[in-house]
Records
---
Amino acid sequence: DTGVSQDPRHKITKRGQNVTFRCDPISEHNRLYWYRQTLGQGPEFLTYFQNEAQLEKSRLLSDRFSAERPKGSFSTLEIQRTEQGDSAMYLCASSLREDEQFFGPGTRLTVL
Amino acid sequence: SQQGEEDPQALSIQEGENATMNCSYKTSINNLQWYRQNSGRGLVHLILIRSNEREKHSGRLRVTLDTSKKSSSLLITASRAADTASYFCATPLWGSGGSNYKLTFGKGTLLTVNP
């Protein structure tokens, strides 16, 4: 247990539905990251927050994706109008410095 | 884009043997990190080696870095069944804000340690 928690751990949804994931980072960590991992691949960067500011978004993050980090604490990642191609493991990580990142257990999304 | 690439893609060994995994990357880095991922779980940070270091040890782990060849290796000595996992190298990429705040990962090496 790294201290980063994610909820839910698993989500099964039908195509076209909206889903929201939550990440609770280690409390003193001001940096928070979202990654997506598909089967057989390494994690791919989606977006990054420093405190409450979203400083970068990957081109992987289409208009259907939105992430927030109100008050610089927990973060949410919402996917609207889900597609089968969104099926993946969504990983959250936090860090205090620009090196080691602490990852949560991930949320596995299955879109039917 | 994926910066690092691990080799081999899969490795199967017997308990007690050593396991070596390699990572090659493309651009200049200031550090390189290795992570472990058990099946269906999150990633666990193993070790970080900075660009001015050539070798680093942590328990049964030994990491080397050759910046001239843009490569790194992870050696796990006296492997155990519990070491069965995917191993990823990760390198930071500099963002537009001037700080390297995102990691890029390879596809990983799947290590299987047979009891």
---
Amino acid sequence: NAGVTQTPKFQVLKTGQSMTLQCAQDMNHNSMYWYRQDPGMGLRLIYYSASEGTTDKGEVPNGYNVSRLNKREFSLRLESAAPSQTSVYFCASSEGGTGELFFGEGSRLTVL
Amino acid sequence: GESVGLHLPTLSVQEGDNSIINCAYSNSASDYFIWYKQESGKGPQFIIDIRSNMDKRQGQRVTVLLNKTVKHLSLQIAATQPGDSAVYFCAEFYSGTYKYIFGTGTRLKVLA
């Protein structure tokens, strides 16, 4: 089992460029999440999808959009990247209603 | 490697000693509390969770204690080993929103 797969693993953007981070899980999980991790800030929730067909804002949604494409895939889009969005982005999934959240390996984004 | 955790609080322990990592949570209605371990360059990995109706749960070399009165969670690691060196995060899950919210994390350094 691959678990949670994120692409790309690394990306460098210029200010104002757009990009989409892709995430797919093969565990048939209902819920999927996007977090960002900055040094000293821990993990902050950007957006999540409790079930297929729904998306909700997390703690830091500004500057991002998401799409729950199907049960397996949940993408995160930056429409106009800013240096403040330089971070490591993690996708995660869970069965829903249980404790364990499964994470991908992360996508390191640098915005110049 | 990963630059996460540069400014996190650090706990240094001698190899073989017990470690106690503490966390305060915010939502008294949270259903689950979870501990994650994150090694450099990797995504967080599940260690142990505890339901809100429990006070204590034990795993292999780890124990989680929950004090709902003061909204406090702790992770105890017995006989700490060099491989335990990592950043540790607590998280709370609330079934009303399906959100997982993370604490800021603690870096554990094991001294030989």
